[in-house]
Amino acid sequence: MGELKLMKGNEAIAEAAIRAGVDAYFGYPITPQSEVIEYLALQKPHETTGMVVLQAESELASINMIYGAAGAGKKVMTSSSGPGISLMMEGLSYIAGAELPCVVVNVVRGGPGLGTIQPAQSDYFQATKGGGHGDYSMIVLAPASVQEMSDFVPLGFDLAFKYRNPVFILSDGLIGQMMEKVELFDFVPRWTEQEIIEKNPWATTGKTPGRERNIITSLYLDPGIQEKHNEKLQAKYRKMKKEEVRFEKIQCDDAEYLIVAYGSSARIAQKSILLAREKGIKVGLFRPITLFPFPFNEIKKMANQVKGILSLELSAGQMVEDIKMAVNEKIKVEHFGRMGGIIHSPAEALEALEQKIIGE
Amino acid sequence: MTEEIIIAGFGGQGVLSMGKILAYSGIMQNQEVSWMPSYGPEMRGGTANVTVILSDERISSPILTEYDTAIILNQQSMDKFESSVKPGGTLIYDGNGISSPPERKDINIYRIDAADEASKMGLTKIFNMIVLGGYLKVKPLVDLKNVILGLKKSLPDRYHHMIPDNEKAIMRGLEIVEPVHILN
Predict the structure, then answer these.
(1) Whether A268 and B61 lie within 8 Å, measured CB to CB
(2) pLDDT digits (tens, 9 = 90+) for A58-68
């Protein structure tokens, strides 16, 4: 068993980055995720693993530092919250277009604009439907515990390098600020220069005689070549949809009603289903772990079993659109969620389920 | 066993660190724990509160609207959280600065004059540990030895010389907590 620690979600992300053998973290502080860079600055990993930790002059700079370092085959990551993530969207689109691996964490706060520093889940569309320009997708992982904040960093890198694609961790202020027990995984050494060359033959590691130059770009002026490139990207996204869907089902076996919720809302919903069952209402919880690829088929299957679905999100209702697409009007699907940094209580969520779904 | 606790008071009273020590104590005895603070502007000089959950099972919501135990350290928090104690639950408060004491008849109420005691002991910094001692007397859910282990884990090394004072404060809290209203 690994070392047990009581940690904030943000600290767990930072510790996991060191342990996962990350080469560099470039970031810019913003509440509610500043503990990530604070923790890294305190731990001084440059003295132990050799990991670089740099506070950039802005989020624009940090995402473009990621672009550069990822192009050289390094394991790199950044984190921010909504306003900073919006600034990074141009860079993320370039990184996706250039097919580079990296991990980006969004510890979501309420918006739009500067909004509030309290938790929200209102960046779902931005994370799962593009955000930046062009036809691109990222794998989006949604941790619901401090343990998953730690575990999803190495998982994120595995997936990022498997697909040569950015991986997004969509967390929020609640999971970021909360402390829980974490079992830390063992240190993974950083790749040596030789290992980088062997594992990432596409990277710009210096041209050797006998092979073509490696070029990192997202610019294809010839529409024919651009379309081919797009087709290649789309094939990659289809593979993700086939192989990378992750989800958790809690008390779904005998459920007559279903709450679908991810991240912090899934934690709240877990309590709601307990309260429901105390009242004799059989409610299950379906928790998407990957928001892209979204578990469409599994939710479609659940629609054959339950009478109605409530989507619980700290937003005006974003994921609910994906659920509706999965269910295709077979059963009733409604959204409930508080906004602007207010967090719905387990009782409030149950009341919404009773009124909007069980109701008539 | 699941114990859902809110600890609420002024920023600077050690509310968050008391919660952290309690959470660490839970880990020491193999429990699941969660610690969810209020964060943001209110931390800077205003009220502070933290929800701590100790459980033998996987913890669901880290944010709650009703609690098994409320530990209340100022009047604002009394106004806000007295009504959030579950019927049959427990409220522990420090009498210092409380102008309207709790009046509910469906919960157990205890008073601990920890602020006064801390200044008598000449150790105002360990006020929160006296309160923690009071809580441990009323709800002996974590072992004292695990609390001391938790204390060691959550305090940085440079403060370890203060552990004996903290221990003394916990012991004092065990002695001075007083029942105000107990359910039959």
Answers:
(1) yes
(2) 999 999 999 99
Q: Is A230 exposed, middle or buried (0-12, 13-18, 19+ CB in 10 A)?
A: middle
Domain total for chain B?
1
E strands, B40-184, are 47-55, 67-72, 85-93, 108-111, 178-181
What contacts A137, CB < 8 A, 6 or more positions away? A96, A128, A130, A165, A237, A240, A292
β-strands A308-312, A283-288 pairing: unpaired
Instruction: Give the integer Cα–Cα distance in Å for A29 and A53.
Output: 12
Number of residues that this document lists for chain B: 184
What is the ipTM, given to two decimal places?
Answer: 0.91
Q: How far apart are the CA of A142 and the nearest CA of chain B, in angstroms?
A: 16
Is B63 in contact with A174 (Cβ distance < 8 A)? yes
Per-residue model confidence (pLDDT) at position B71: 98
Domain with residue B14: its CATH number is 3.40.920.10
Q: Domain span at residue B89?
A: 2-181
C-alpha A207/C-alpha A62 separation (Å) is: 26
A window 317-346, beta carbon within 8 A of B? 343, 345-346
Contact B20 A179 (CB under 8 A): yes
Map out the domains of chain A with their CATH numbers: 4-193 (3.40.50.970), 247-358 (3.40.50.920)
pLDDT band at B120 (very low <50, low <70, confident <90, very high): very high
The secondary structure of residue A109, as a DSSP letter, is B
Is residue A29 predicted with pLDDT exceeding 60?
Answer: yes
Residues 6+ away with beta carbon under 8 Å from B157: none
B24 Cβ under 8 Å from any chain A Cβ: yes
Lateral strand order in the sheet of B2-10: A4-8, A179-183, B32-37, B47-55, B2-10, B67-72, B85-93, B108-111, B178-181
**Cβ contact, residue pair B62, A174, below 8 Å:** yes
What is the DSSP code string of B61-102?
-S--SSEEEEEE-SHHHHHHHGGGEEEEEEEEE--TT-SS--
Mean pLDDT, rounded, of chain B = 93
